[in-house]
Automatic annotation (TrEMBL), chain A:
<dbReference type="InterPro" id="IPR048897">
    <property type="entry name" value="Nol11_C"/>
</dbReference>
<dbReference type="Pfam" id="PF20998">
    <property type="entry name" value="Nol11_C"/>
</dbReference>
<dbReference type="InterPro" id="IPR036322">
    <property type="entry name" value="WD40_repeat_dom_sf"/>
</dbReference>
<keyword id="KW-0804">Transcription</keyword>
<keyword id="KW-0805">Transcription regulation</keyword>
<dbReference type="GO" id="GO:0005730">
    <property type="term" value="C:nucleolus"/>
</dbReference>
<protein>
    <submittedName>
        <fullName>Nucleolar protein 11 isoform X3</fullName>
    </submittedName>
</protein>
<dbReference type="Pfam" id="PF08168">
    <property type="entry name" value="NOL11_N"/>
</dbReference>
<feature type="domain" description="Nucleolar protein 11 N-terminal">
    <location>
        <begin position="1"/>
        <end position="332"/>
    </location>
</feature>
From TrEMBL, chain B:
<dbReference type="GO" id="GO:0032040">
    <property type="term" value="C:small-subunit processome"/>
</dbReference>
<dbReference type="InterPro" id="IPR015943">
    <property type="entry name" value="WD40/YVTN_repeat-like_dom_sf"/>
</dbReference>
<dbReference type="InterPro" id="IPR001680">
    <property type="entry name" value="WD40_rpt"/>
</dbReference>
<dbReference type="InterPro" id="IPR046351">
    <property type="entry name" value="UTP4"/>
</dbReference>
<comment type="function">
    <text>Ribosome biogenesis factor. Involved in nucleolar processing of pre-18S ribosomal RNA. Part of the small subunit (SSU) processome, first precursor of the small eukaryotic ribosomal subunit. During the assembly of the SSU processome in the nucleolus, many ribosome biogenesis factors, an RNA chaperone and ribosomal proteins associate with the nascent pre-rRNA and work in concert to generate RNA folding, modifications, rearrangements and cleavage as well as targeted d Involved in SSU pre-rRNA processing at sites A', A0, 1 and 2b.</text>
</comment>
<keyword id="KW-0804">Transcription</keyword>
<keyword id="KW-0698">rRNA processing</keyword>
<keyword id="KW-0690">Ribosome biogenesis</keyword>
<keyword id="KW-0597">Phosphoprotein</keyword>
Length: 686, 711
């Protein structure tokens, strides 16, 4: 699962990050170290794990660095260009940049590229390309002009393709974009005109590219907020000819097109891209990770102090300017399992990170795959939600409230609590924990005291966890307060399995009458009610059986289109053996963190039919089927899998019946053949 | 056309009843099909495999110990009779191929594999013994007792000697395993496994076994088996259905495989430690193998590779030979499952073997009175066959004019199992023997009444017999004692006279297990456990000749009437005919050896346990194993590999010429099975004793119910 970890800043004292941000961040020859070049005179070498600079070099007053410094991986030296033409090469021991090797070139340098496995490559503003060694041998050599007048380099990158450096750069002239692919060793240059579809009017704001064996995939983030992809062959079929390449839509509306600040795009791995920008024109900037394959937002992190619209990605670190400081956000993409995605999904209560439920809304993304209007819907909603969370109330001192809790009436406490929750305080977590402990303490002393509403309110703050108030669930278990238990199951990320088990026992054993009276959150079975009355019978039963259905509107009701056929509906008609209330409670269990081995024995109290499906889910969990569940194409597969399992179950039950019948037949047969214990027979041997 | 079609069957019928039976047909028999032999084999408790001799020792719940020779077509070549108090819980081989057992009576027993008796029994003084294992060098024995003690015994050339106790544990020691280096042992108890240092005898680790299984907590977790590997890993199997791997150096659990909903009862590891096998109470045997994590990595892990369901009941014990998994349990079958990847030649040896019945005869028959004597562990039953006057055609069941009668139920005294028994041809004598007593009875028949009188004052040397045989005229009794001597006893009305004892060849104490006497009473053939059949002249009371030794043990022996040809069947399914007067193999036998037996004949997997003749049919030899019987007609050509050996269907409208051409000497029938005994009562009458497996299963406790199909 792709995830952004906690950010940290690198001390930025020496850097002078202007409004345009930095000139560049480049890798050093040690994985943990980066060369950061500002737009003024300074180059700083940072060690990320120590969060501090290891060295800093500046050019003289009056000089200006024009290309970000790079590391020559073959020698370990650093290379920088100042004042467009002056090349400086130094190493860690050097102190003063003024005293290091210097070469003045005959043309202006656009950028120095350096990647592992090759010498640094210089790209001149006129489009010429030179290796560093060749240039140092004859610094004043003539540099040819490749680009036409008015053609400006917008973006450039160096790749190693089969150990050969390939430089790609994109130029712009009068709103037209051209892609150049320069094979550095063979000096072959291919030029492509980038043809753009309807998005022609928009301006490309950021590029990124990745390479596989045959193609360079250039992704661009346009001012319409969409990401486009262009495939450019590494080896041109005919280098002489000016060829055209077409861009296609990859992700729709990942950032707001009209956002004031800059946006940036970078490829993280085969399936993920990181986008820096504002999701809505009004909102703050965010760093978001999108899954290209699933068309889903994987995670995002708000950057309220704004960025320079620049984003670098090296190793596992995303680097950007957040406000005035250079910020590192580690990015991890671990191979996920369905167990992680379903059984152990926990609600993150860190307001900085909004973890997307890893469910695809199949209904929405079905059919027209790439970023249709339907697909956009849920994301928007989620973003809005996140904003709600982040703008949640917070408040002042609380000692008073605690004393209120110890003395006053329930009504009064409730009122005070409401007031308190309306505003947010700095250490909100701890205070809420204290309040619950206080309430529970009084409950124990005073059996008649039952501050249920207060507890519900406190649980709903999303900041409580089991470990903060272990007594809460115990009390709820004691009182068989299923509503409170359901709330806790939904909200607490760290419930021990024994408690989950106790909840399950209660949910299974509690009488239907008491369930009817309890106010149970029925969201997880929201369409159950319809089905009981209406014709849409199969869907809710399926949802329930699967235990998949996450709460709310991202429901994975994979079979909702199934009941269109009347015979299917008929086949699935056997109504659910548990009441909607109980189903909602069971779903709460299924959504909390648990291990199957622990819970399954208790689930035996549910009819065998459902246990089988649970077993099947466990099999799925074990087999790491996440991918299958995630990709939109899998919807059909899953439906047919589900149908298959169902038919398999009926086949098995029929087989068992047949086996019994056969056994009976065999008995009959034996009786027929049974000649008793003794007989005299005639045998003829031939 | 029509006329001829009618002629065919008519002619056949006419011939069948005229007595002039053509060469092609063997003719018709009336078969007494007996299913009232209510024999139930005892469940298997232990198996122990000996790599040097490729022999397998099997102990049963009644205390019987059997030795199977895996090199000789899995023939059960020796057995030690059971004993009521000697319930064997553990069985092991030590250096020099000595065999020990230990059991709930608290005794360690050593068996004499030559004389086929118990060498000695020694009390370990620790209460019932639950486990026993020999040290890797084979020079020490370790037993685990009820009182929680682990006792070390030194094996001396003729006995064992108690050496010392290890640290006593809280509860009984159910399983033991020695580290291959001999420095440490693992002991499975209730709820925990202890690791002992052999030198100091103190427990260095105690590894607690989780009682829970699938969230359900059991009252106790019994460690049924442990195995100590060279790398220090201890593998345990327990009553909670788990196979667990422990690190004995740190005393920590490394890995746990829940494999069954019921107890995992047994474990055996291959010598190479690359594979092991466990047996469960659900009748399943699981094979675990050490396989590479990825195709070319050196990192290996234990993976459950194959489940085998050859048993219906508890698999109490398993063994791992280099090429096969061996398992046995309550359902009484011994199953030998060759590992296909370890079998070099994919021949019939690679097939699964399931051994259910003993490879010896438990039934004897009095031809004259049509009586059957059934031998059980602790009693004998005498039955008289019924009769019919009806006739019929092939396959008909004839109406009985008289049903079979249960005449006699003779219970043994004492705790010992019966080793062998015999009824004389005239039906007047019954003899049987246990490990320490020999019994001879005289029977009198007066109309329907039968009276039994024990012949008392048996001589002291007739204490224990391995085989008993009466001469055809019931005047002589031949007894093979376990000291290797053969006694010839003359029977008189109500008494006896010891005529002679043939002493074993000097220097050997090999016991004789099979006897055959010629119908004229002149010749006695005897065969021991290893090759070599001796023929004695009974008139002159001296050794006549010794049949040349053959590599495979003898499974059955008989002397033909008139010709005095000795027919010998071996465990490799070879049959020889040896002329006693000429002291050489007969022409027919040479011809058979020259051409070779039919490949299907050689591929049968149960030994021939009985050979019979009838004096009026000198050319015919009756042989049977558990799944077929065959009458060899020596006058017919031998079948070659292209011939159809067994044709279950009667010939239809073939002409006589065709039938004569395709007819061969081996007339086989597989109608009666499992066949425990078959004999020619007279020229046209056979008796067949069957023991259907279903009848045995019906007498076993019900197995753990398991749904066959999923869910």
């Amino acid at each position: 699962m792709a995830a952004l970890e906690d950010e940290f800043t690198l001390s930025s004292g020496v850097l002078s990050a202007g409004p345009d941000g930095l000139l560049g961040v480049e890798q050093s020859n040690k994985t943990d170290q980066f060369l950061v070049t500002d737009r003024g005179r300074t180059v700083v070498l940072y060690k990320v794990s120590d969060q501090k600079p290891l060295g800093s070099w500046s050019v003289k007053q009056g000089q200006l660095i024009t290309c970000s410094a790079v590391c020559n991986f073959q020698t370990g030296e650093y290379v920088v260009v100042h004042d467009n033409k002056v090349l400086r090469i130094w190493n860690n021991e050097d102190v003063n940049l003024d005293k290091v090797f210097k070469a003045t070139l005959s043309a202006e340098v656009h950028k120095i590229h350096s990647v592992r496995g090759t010498e640094p490559v210089l790209l001149f503003k006129e489009g010429a390309v030179r290796g560093l060694e060749a240039l140092l041998a004859e610094p004043q050599q003539e540099i040819e002009a490749v680009l036409s007048d008015g053609e400006v380099i917008r973006w450039t990158k160096l790749f190693m393709v089969f150990r050969h450096p390939v430089l790609i750069f994109i130029t712009e002239k009068h709103g037209n974009y051209f892609v150049y692919v320069h094979m550095v060793n063979s000096h072959t240059l291919s030029k492509y005109t980038l043809l753009r579809g309807q998005e022609e009017k928009s301006v490309i704001q950021s590029f990124t590219a990745s390479v596989d064996r045959k193609f360079i995939s250039v992704m661009s983030l346009s001012s319409d907020g969409c990401v486009y992809e262009t495939l450019i062959p590494v080896y041109p079929t005919d280098p002489e000819e000016n060829q055209r390449v077409v861009s296609s839509l990859l992700l729709r509306a990942v950032v707001s097109g009209s956002a004031p600040s800059g946006v940036a795009l970078t490829v993280l791995d085969r399936d993920h891209v990181a986008v820096l920008g504002s999701p809505l024109s009004a909102s703050k900037e965010c760093l978001s990770v999108w899954n290209i394959k699933f068309q889903t937002l994987q995670t995002s992190k708000e950057l309220p102090q704004g960025t320079s619209g620049q984003l670098w990605y090296y190793g596992e670190n995303l680097l950007m300017l957040h406000g005035q400081s250079l910020t590192v956000i580690p990015y991890k993409c671990e191979v996920s399992s369905l167990a992680g995605a379903l059984g152990k999904l926990k609600h993150s209560h860190d307001p900085g990170i909004q973890v997307m439920p890893p469910f695809v809304n199949w209904e929405a993304s079905q059919g027209d795959g790439l970023g249709s209007q339907h697909a956009e819907q849920p994301r928007r909603i989620l973003r809005r939600r996140k904003i709600e969370v982040s703008s949640q109330p917070a408040v002042p001192p609380s000692k008073q409230l605690l004393t209120t809790i110890m003395k006053d009436s329930e009504k009064h406490i409730e009122m005070e609590l409401r007031k308190f929750l309306a505003v947010k305080t700095p250490d909100f977590h701890a205070i809420v924990g204290d309040l619950v402990t206080g309430l529970l303490g009084r409950c124990q002393v005073e059996p008649s005291f039952c501050p249920r509403n207060c507890l519900v309110q406190l649980i709903q703050t999303h900041v409580l966890s089991y470990s903060l108030c272990p007594g809460l669930m115990e009390m709820a278990v004691k009182k068989t307060d299923v509503q409170l238990l359901q709330l806790c199951l939904q909200r607490f990320p760290d419930i021990p399995e024994s408690v989950t088990c106790a909840c399950l026992k209660i949910f299974l054993s509690i009488g239907d009458d008491s369930l009817h009276q309890a106010e149970i959150d029925m969201e997880s079975v929201f369409d159950y009610g319809d089905s009981v009355q209406g014709d849409n019978v199969a869907a809710p039963v399926d949802v329930l059986q699967n235990g998949f259905s996450p709460e709310g509107d991202t429901c994975l009701s994979c079979c909702q289109e199934v009941p269109a056929k009347p015979q299917d509906a008929a086949a699935a008609t056997p109504t659910c053996p548990v009441t909607p209330q109980r189903a909602a409670l069971l779903n709460a269990i299924l959504h909390s963190g648990y291990s199957e081995a622990f819970l399954l024995p208790h689930l035996k109290d549910i009819p065998a039919q459902h246990i089988t499906i649970l077993d099947w889910i466990c099999l799925l969990l074990d087999a790491n089927f996440t991918v299958v569940v995630m990709i939109p194409e899998a919807k059909r597969l899953l439906i047919s899998l589900y149908k298959f399992v169902k038919s398999q179950i009926s086949v098995y039950s029929e087989l068992n019946k047949i086996e019994v019948s056969f056994r009976e037949l065999q008995k009959l047969n034996q009786e027929k053949n049974n000649r008793g214990l003794y007989s005299i027979e005639v045998l003829e041997l031939f | 056309m029509r006329a001829r079609a009618h002629v065919g069957p008519g002619r056949r019928e006419a011939r069948a009843w005229s007595g002039e039976r053509g060469a092609a047909g063997m003719g018709e028999f009336k078969v007494h099909r007996v299913r009232f032999f209510n024999y139930v084999p005892s469940g298997i408790r232990c198996v122990a495999y000996n790599n040097q001799s490729n022999r397998l020792a099997v102990s049963r719940t009644d205390g019987t110990v059997e030795i199977y020779n895996l090199s000789a077509n899995y023939f059960q070549e020796k057995f030690f009779p059971g004993h009521e108090s000697r319930a064997t819980e553990a069985l092991c081989w030590t250096e020099g191929q000595r065999l020990f057992s230990a059991g709930l009576n608290g005794e360690i027993v050593e068996y004499d594999l030559q004389a086929l008796n118990v060498k000695y029994a020694m009390d370990a003084f620790g209460g019932p013994i639950w486990s026993m294992t020999a040290s890797p060098s084979g020079s020490q024995l370790l037993v685990g007792c009820e009182d929680g003690s682990v006792k070390l015994f030194q094996i001396t050339p003729d006995k064992i000697q108690f050496e010392r106790n290890f640290d006593r544990q809280k509860s009984r020691i159910l399983s033991l395993s020695w580290h291959p280096s001999g420095t440490h042992i693992a002991a499975g108890s209730i709820d925990y496994i202890s690791v002992f240092d052999v030198k100091s005898g103190s427990a260095i680790h105690k590894m607690i076994v989780d009682r829970q299984y699938m969230g359900v907590s059991k009252r106790k977790c019994i460690v049924w088996g442990v195995a100590f590997l060279s790398d220090g890993t201890v593998i345990s199997v327990d009553s909670a259905g788990k196979v667990q791997f422990w690190d004995s150096a740190t005393g920590t659990l490394v890995k746990s495989h829940p494999i069954a909903n019921a107890d995992v009862l047994s474990i055996a590891v291959a010598d190479q430690e690359d594979s092991f096998v466990v047996g469960t109470a659900e009748g399943t045997v699981f094979h675990f193998q050490l396989v590479s994590v990825t195709s070319n990595s050196s990192e290996k892990q234990w993976v459950r590779t194959k489940p085998f369901q050859h048993h219906t009941h508890d698999v109490r014990t398993v063994a791992h030979s280099p090429t096969a998994l061996i398992s046995g349990g309550t359902d009484t079958h011994l199953v030998i499952r060759p590992l296909m990847e370890k079998v070099e030649v994919k021949n019939y040896d690679a097939a699964l073997r399931k051994i259910t019945f003993p490879h010896r005869c438990l039934i004897s028959c009095s031809k004259k009175r049509q009586l059957l004597l059934f031998q059980f562990a602790h009693h004998l039953e005498l039955w008289r066959l019924g009769s019919t006057v009806a006739t019929g055609k092939n396959g008909d069941i004839l109406p009985l004019s008289k049903n079979a009668d249960h005449l006699l139920h003779l219970k043994t005294k004492g705790p010992e199992n019966i080793i062998c028994s015999c009824i004389s041809s005239c039906g007047s004598w019954i003899a049987y023997s246990t490990a320490s007593r020999f019994f001879l009875y005289r029977l009198n028949y007066e109309h329907d009444n039968i009276s039994l009188k024990r012949v008392s004052k048996m001589p002291a040397f007739l204490r224990s017999a391995l085989q008993i045989l009466f001469s055809e005229d019931s005047k002589k009794l031949f007894v093979a004692s376990n000291q290797g001597s053969l006694h010839v006893i003359q029977l008189l009305e109500g008494s006896f006279k010891h005529l002679h004892a043939f002493q074993p060849q000097s220097g050997t104490v090999e016991a004789m297990c099979l006897l055959a006497v010629s119908p004229d009473g002149n010749w006695l053939a005897a065969s021991g456990t290893s090759a070599g059949v001796h023929v004695y002249n009974v008139k002159q009371l001296k050794l006549h000749c010794t049949v040349p030794a053959y590599n495979f043990p003898v499974t059955a022996l008989a002397i033909a009437p008139n010709t005095n040809n000795l027919v010998i069947a071996h465990s490799d399914q070879q049959v020889f005919e040896y002329s006693i007067p000429d002291k050489q193999y007969t022409e027919w036998s040479r011809a058979v050896q020259k051409q070779g037996f039919h490949h299907l004949w050689l591929q049968r997997d149960t030994p021939i346990t009985h050979i019979g003749f009838h004096s009026k049919r000198p050319m015919h030899i009756l042989l049977h194993d558990a799944y077929m019987f065959c009458i060899i007609d020596k006058s017919l050509p031998l079948p070659n590999d292209k011939t159809l050996l067994y044709n279950p269907l009667p010939p239809t409208s073939e002409s006589d010429v065709v039938r004569r051409r395709t007819a061969h000497a081996f007339k086989i029938s597989k109608i009666y099975k499992p066949l425990l005994f078959m004999e020619l009562l007279d020229e046209g009458t056979l008796v067949a004793v069957e023991r259907p497996l279903d009848d045995i299963i019906a007498q076993l406790p019900p197995p753990i119910k398991k749904k066959k199909f999923g869910t």
